[in-house]
Specification:
Blueprint (H helix, E strand, L loop, with lengths): L1 H16 L3 H20 L3 H9 L4 H14 L3 H11 L2
Helix pairs in contact: 1-2, 3-4, 4-5
């Protein structure tokens, strides 16, 4: 699962740097599939917390969005979001 975190970080970086809408959409869809795989796993709460504390802002935002969407770890997500809006 650690490789998924690294891949999510890499994809988030690529999404932020991509200007082409189609490529950005493909990368975003790939990141969502990875987050779906994390959600389906037994260690999902641990991994989502790890993503919420990730040094990359884009990764934290994706994790916070996933938490709010899934109605899990809401307190952790609420802690992260205000720091992202700066």
């Amino acid at each position: 699962m650690r490789s998924e975190i690294a891949e999510i970080a890499m994809l988030s970086e690529q999404i932020a740097a991509t200007r082409h809408v189609g490529r950005s959409n493909r990368l975003t869809a790939r990141r969502h599939r990875l987050l779906d795989a994390i959600d389906a796993g037994p260690d999902r709460l641990i991994l989502l917390r790890t993503l919420l504390d990730h040094p990359q802002q884009e990764v934290r935002m994706a994790a916070a969005w996933r938490c709010v969407w899934g109605q899990i770890l809401l307190e952790d997500a609420e802690r992260v979001v205000p720091r992202l809006v700066v």
